Fold:
Amino acid sequence: MSEAKQLSALVLVADGSEEIETVTPLDVLVRAGFTTVKSVGVNLKNPLYA
Structure:
């Protein structure tokens, strides 16, 4: 029997994101079977992209 492939994801979170905008994608990934889900905060210095 072969081992199941482990899925992992990295979610980028921009400065100023609302809590629901961060938690919802993480929750969906976990429910979809991703075993490793990490979130990383992104602090943008340029106000045009923030």
